Amino acid sequence: MSQTSPLISAAISLDSRYRTMSDETGGATPRGLRGSVRIRNRAVAEREASRLARPDVPSRTGALGHASRKKSSVSSTPFGILPLNRSVAAELGGDAEEQWCGPFSVARQMIAAREEAREKREAEQKEREEKSSDVYQHPLDEIVEEVEEEKKRKANPSMKWKGKVRETGEKSNFYMKRRRRFARQQQGLDLSRNQRIPSLFNLCVGFLVDHFEFVEGLGAGIGADVRRLICESLVSKGKMNGAAFDTIAEPGIEALEIIDCAAVTQDQLSSALGLLIESGLQALILNHAGRAFGSKAVNSIVSASSNQLFALSIGGAYLLKDKDASSLLEATSSTLSSIEFKACHLIGTSFCMSISKNFAPSRGTGCLLELSLEDVPLTKESLLTMGSASDALQNLKSLSLRHIEGIDDDVVSNLLDSTRNLEAIDLSNNSLLTDGTLSAVRKCNKNGTLRAMQLSGLRNISSAGLEALFTLHIPGLPSAPKLRKLDLSSCSKDAVNDAVFELAVLASSVKAVGNATCAEEVQSKRVSGGWSSLGGLIDVNLSGSCVTDKSMETLASMCSGSLRELDVSFCAFVSNKGLGFLVSELGNQLAKLHIWGNAQISDEFLDGHGRVDDGGLEIIGAWMKRSGKCSVR
């Protein structure tokens, strides 16, 4: 007979007392409870008593907290050795253990699991060692492995690169290392640019900007470069107001470049442009034009009796209407050769029709050489009006269409068919473009004049399309473009790989690609190392691609005398050895290296590459830069 818990015995005794009192009072409790209520109270008491009950006799197995001694690495607990209760499974013959809640119990479980995992790993390692010792090894196996390793080193010379160990003699953390590295870079850049001591020119410009409110005029002899530098300094110091604009935009100057027109009113700009156009203004560049450049400014230019304007660049003019932009191009088409509009959201069909109409050779007007449109809501039908239907773009040297809403493969093919000697093309951030655009780019390079190509953010192009673009000789197609600037950043990750980039570098390095150039000649020149005299890439952006150290070796062998700037940000497969080998093989012309987001690049390269001390190489994205009073990475 099993023993009864003291709480259960107390509950039974209490119920007996209630029953006796009920018999003595004639069937009623002291509070007059009915029989059903008494039965329910008894059931509740029994249930609570059984829930809180503990066995009088301790179990045979002791436990520390939740686990047994044999599974725990902790020898004591804050509560000592606690007895275990037998659950229903234990009463039936099982060996279940009571689980306790709380962070201490969870920690005990983690410790026990860690010990078991360690024992399992050691057993597996021992088993692997026993199996490997049983395998027969030929005496020549080590020699074969060395030969294979030597072949890999010859195929990948970057494997031999090792960073220089620089002992500073003092202990420091990563923060101090980055700080010293940044200071060393700044010191080296100052030495390379001879800017340790400010030049007299910079001192004069700084003094002039600090006291610009007392300047009455700069004079017509001050060139556009100096005026732009003064304007940038005024904007950075918050002194670009209406009075400063009147001082900079004085009659008689040839170029007006204002980087921020927020403090310039419409009346002020229109009156100034009227005087400047009459006095022979040739270049008008207004960045962040805002509300200043609208109908009044256009009327001032259109109503001028004489016009010598050949370069027009307007950015952010949200009041510039489509008809005003069209009339502006019509009035200046006789001399205008460079057009740039950015973030002007009201221009549309009339603007495109004005280009195709006023710059056609049949009119005998000006010759359009540069066309740049960015973030402008032009439809496909509007863009097609500028294409092969007219000859307005036949003399174009540079075409830039960035982030245009209606552009697709048909539009690009139509526009490029009307060009003859295109030297630069920028089609970045147009999501509808595919491999058909790459085919159109190669077909338009009939004279081999293309030197710069930017295809950033084209997520729908593939590696096959890029290979077809850069393959040296394809029957029926013009030669592959011999580029000096190449931007393939933020494309599809698998589109830009080592094979594609090698073809692009090879095409840019060949002196004359055509039917006369065969694979044997290309290979012989590559082996002999005669690429630096033939040309090569100067500016390369491969950000966000899947290129590896193999591409760094390709650049080192084919562009050793030309490469000046390289961006390999967010390229996870480029290592310290690849970048170190590239820097060691390239000449001193390499000036900038962007490595943002590359967590795998460590101090082995940053403090161990061959140009740490000369200061001519600026590595961007690896350490802190000072911004105001705060230091950021």
TrEMBL record:
Coiled-coil boundaries: 106-134
InterPro entries per UniProt: Leu-rich_rpt_Cys-con_subtyp, LRR_dom_sf
Protein's GO biological process: SCF-dependent proteasomal ubiquitin-dependent protein catabolic process
Region (Disordered) location: 45-80
One GO CC term, this protein: SCF ubiquitin ligase complex
Keywords: Coiled coil
Keyword Coiled coil on entry: yes
SUPFAM superfamilies, per the entry: RNI-like
Record's keyword annotation contains Cell division: no
Ranges of Basic and acidic residues composition bias in the record: 45-54
Source taxon at top rank: Eukaryota
Protein name: Uncharacterized protein
Species assigned in the record: Odontella aurita
